[in-house]
Amino acid sequence: MRSAILQTASRYLLPILLLFSVFLLLRGHYYPGGGFVGGLVAAIAFVLHSFAHGTTNTMKIIGYKPMALIPVGLGIASLAMFLPVLIGYPVMTGLWFEEPIPVIGMMGSALFFDLGVYLVVIGVVLTILFTISLHTH
Amino acid sequence: MIDNHIIAPILIHLFTAIIQLACWSKTITQRVLSIAGATSGFAFSFALFIKVYNGEILTMNAANWEAPFGIVFVADLFSSTLVLLTSIAALAVSIFSSVGVGKARMLYGYFPIFHFLIMGLNGAFLTGDIFNLYVWFEVIIIASFVLLTLGGRKEQLEGAVKYMALNILASTFFLTGIGILYGITGTLNMADLSLKVPLVEDQSIVNLTAMFFIIGFGIKSAVFPLYFWLPSSYHTPPSAVAATFGGLLTKVGLYAMFRVFTLIFIPNEFMRTVLIVLAILTILTGAFGALVKLDIRRLFSYLIVCHIGFIVGGLGLYTKIAFMGAIFYLIHDIMVKTNLFLISGLIRQMRGTLDTPKLGGLYSEYPKISLLMALVLFSLVGIPPLSGFWPKIYLFEASFNANSYFFIASLILASFITLYVIAKLWAEVFWKEASRTEPLSDSFKELDIFRKTLLVLPVGILAAGTLFIGLNAEFIIQVVDRISNELLDTSPYIKAVLGK
């Protein structure tokens, strides 16, 4: 099904949804949100795009296989988890920068953990959905 | 004492798996990484064992939240011994897999999933929080389900569905038990639970929860009556996978049983009887099942079930000597059962089949390897001074002291049946003339010497471990003696975790 309305809308919705997913990711420390939901929203943005333009076109936007995001995300999350061990704290201890960073606010290692989760969720969801849709076509 | 490094055996496998995910289609790199990861995992767990053996119970409060509010990781002698054994088995399986697992499976992520599985096992042994234990169980189930279905043959999927269905059922029971426990005590930390459960006014609900845990862990460790997922799924995946499963997966259920029923619920008379009856039935069904099976791996699967009963019975008797026997048997069992499945993989390489009537003539063709295998089979039977012999003495003594004659009878019967099936196996597979009517494919002979070594070395490592346990039994008895004391008197554990 190719609909002009959906195609036009999805072209604008993709950046908006991605921005919204980043907002959810950053907000997640004290409010509802976080890496998992943010990742799902980002994945949905790409899925919507693939509905309108076809899976192969969406994969062109991403540039490489979504599966590559899984080790990257897991690596970032594990490093954020492991970093405190190097300075003598137990794993997963939250480390914080002293000064707030403009726009984002206070930033700590928990954010990087969430960022890792965000990437893993995008990677897993897109790998599953793209594999299925490429096989059914 | 707080030591932030006890989590190293978990992290090392996590990082190995992540790096392997990054080299998804490079199978040579994955093999090298797997062996390197397993070796350093072994080094870390050996260091952990030495530290705990020479010192005291070590703890780590994850995220620096103090127990009982945060998740705590605890390495006492019991868990660090099991982590060490897991690492030895993982090292052997990882070396064996580098040749024994097909390239197609490696391209679909065999090695990363294997390391996630070992990570889950180490996590389950080290955690001191009951909900975290449940999470590690889930990690184990998901990883093992992928390993079981990788390859996608029809009988694999059939076995995997049974495996998955019963394990999810077990997890549901386990989770329900945790839910009730949290509802009545308001804590999930095992040491804290151990203090708060006896204070609950309505002890009948505590007993009910204990039953949930018996059912949950019972299914996971293949105790009668819900054991049949094990023999119907363990013969389907490649032998390297079956070795990990047979050696380690059921044992983590047993570990959890020991932990929960010594720390949180002290079994009353009724529960002990239930455990002993279940143990006897498990032993008998496992033994009789092994008696009629012709496929080597199905036979070994039934022997796993049979010997699980020995360990559950040791828990049911609930005396120090029984604990010593059961835990000694657990240590011996991890080494031997992992090795048995590796051996079956080796036989498959040499013969192309695992059906005993078709096999034969291995001894005349490969005398040295056959003798190595014989060592393992003998210690499974429990011929002195090999490792299967010592724990049985303790179990006999404990059940005599408790006047539990049915248990002794089933132990003796099961030992005889094990002897009989292994003798039959030896005669059929090794001594009998190879059948001339059906040509057997020997893919082992064509391999170069390096690959042959990679296949035989892990069997040798585990056999050496078995020999060490058997000949150096005095040291192992010292270890299990201390473990039994820790299990019966949990105050040092609670003090280490809660600091009071």
Would you tell me the structural class of the helices and strands of chain A? mainly alpha
Q: Gap between N and C termini of chain A, in Å?
A: 13 Å
User: For the residues shown, what is the average pLDDT of chain A?
Assistant: 87
Query: Which series of helices and strands of chain B comes N to C?
Result: HHEEHHHHHHHHHHHHHHHHHHH
Q: What is the helix fraction of residues of chain B, given as a range?
A: over 70%
Which outline of chain B best applies?
A: globular
The spatial strand order of the largest sheet of chain B comes to 1-2
Largest sheet properties of chain A:
none
What would you call the quaternary organization? heterodimer
Largest interface: A-B, 17 and 17 residues
Class from secondary-structure proportions of chain B: mainly alpha
Q: What series of H and E elements makes up the topology of chain A?
A: HHHHH
Into how many domains do the coordinates of chain B divide?
A: 1
What would you report as the Rg of chain B, rounded to the nearest angstrom?
22 Å
